[in-house]
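Protocol step 4 of 6: structure prediction from sequence.
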Amino acid sequence: MSFLQLLTNRFPTNFFQDKIVLVGVTANSLGDPLTTPLTTLGQTMSAVEVNAHIFQALRSERLIQPVSSIIVTLTLVSTLLLLVWMVPRLSGFMQMFVSMSFGLVCYGVSLALLHLFSLWLPIGSLLLGIAMVAPLWNALRFNRVLSYFLRESSAMQAAGNQGLFVAKDVGLATEFESELVLFLKLLQLKNCRLTCNHETIFHTLDDKEQASQQFEFTKDFSLTLLDQCYTLQVSCYRVGGEEQAMLRLISQVFSRFSQGGGGIKSSHDILIDKMQFFKQLQVESVKTQRLFKSAIDEMGGGLLVADEMGNLLFHNQQAARMLIVGDGETSLFTCLTQLQFKKSSQTWQQLVRQVLLDGKTIQLEANTLYYPDLDITINTMHAPQSQQTLLLVNISNIEKIKQAQRIRNETIDFLSHDMRSPMTSLLALTQRQRQHNDIPSEVFLKQVEEYARTNLHYAEQFLQLARVESSEPIEMYELDMGALIQNALDSIYHQARARGIQFSFHEPEDAWVTGNGEILERVMMNLLTNAVKYGQVNSCISVAIGDQGDSFKISVQNSGPAISDSLQQNLFKPYQRANQGGLNKQQGVGLGLRFVAVSLQRHGANIDFVSDDQSTCFFFHLKKLPLSLNPDDSQQSDKQLKAETPAA
């Protein structure tokens, strides 16, 4: 109450009976030298009112008691230890959130103790510790990371740039100039000028272009390297795909060397510099990984990689094609069960166990439904970093190697038997004539001529087959298939007449095709010779050229026994011979039909046949050459073409 209210008797006298009255200044205008708290209404509390509250608290024994120092210390230590345990396991944002949560919880606990139990818990040091835990820990962690970056980057730089895609350091300006000139010569730029400090060191000019023709595009490239200023000016009369590719390559070279050989620009932050350095190493590592993965995928053989338990870790594309491995396949043994052993009686589990325990390499042959000859190699590779032993299964398709071995063996047999037999007989004949002289001269010369012609025939067939099976191009030109077949018929006429065989030839008015006349005539002679040799005596051989719209069907049909089923499967393989007229005597060397098949493949055609008990017909198709040509086409048709079809 104010002192004025007391003087005007607004309160009775007994109102102050048995009470302690504190008198003091309460007017705000008078000022109070003491800093006092605020009232619940937000007004400044006078000093006498503060003293009244203190006096009342003393009388009622409601003083605030401080918490024991032991409890404060335990609370501080336990809270900070808990926060130190949690901070390293959290990200930066979560560290901030958890630290703020700890601070709010401690502040709330302090207020609750004060209002409910009149206990004062000092939390200033605790809040300061909570605020400093995360920054101090991050500073220590940053120092460790930075030390690691500095140590590792120094070691890598000391070892040198050993990456596959690291640009070469330039040591001398003359070395760079020579390499740049070689690069420009490689690109074969027609109009360019390279200068060093305004002095021309390389210059090209296309003299074939007209002097009056204007350049469509001109671009300058500049580079300062080792205190030398290089400028390259490239001019183009036209800008096509090739010119754009050249400009892109030149731009890449100049950009790389302008950045210090592909180096990293230095910044003011050492951590950022090291991060950029490791980023470049990561890029090189990704490039190298992609390179090796691409190389493994494109390798000729299949590769399977598994762990010790048989879990499939990797397979390349070739292995997926050979074994039909699905993308979700996880078992090595499931993939290997598709392979059938040729000689081994063990299971895949036994073989893998032997490789793991003995550490030896196992090599064996197997086959699948689509690959008859596969070479399988199983070995192990140890990975010390992961403490793991990897199983490597290499699968190679050796079908062509096996086929080459078979052809080699057949060729050796041919040379050692078929070609030696006539020569051996000839030597025996001459030795007998020299010792006994009991053979008439005419008979002796006739037999010698027969043996020589037989051996010459074998050699010619062998050389002709080797010619068409080679990779050398065959000369192609326009030819009349009717005239070519007629020439072949004339060549076989006497051989057919000896057996009483006649020819029936049916051809259209025009049968023009593109091919090699010498080879196609030899094809027809081989077919006709076989038709005469294996046809019935006193029969007729039908030769026809049928018009099939865009192609001609050439067929040779004779009357005779059917070709056996066992021989039909290998009819066009080398050194396969049939019985003549049902007899057991084999005639020829077995290269004629092989020559026919390979020759027609070089002409983009395939030989086929139909055989029954009455007759056998061989036929093939050749693309028809259109006759309605314009003058330009007719001039072009006079030129000889070169066939680049690979040998079979």
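Step 5 (inspection) to follow. Residues 267 and 273 are 6 Å apart (CA to CA).
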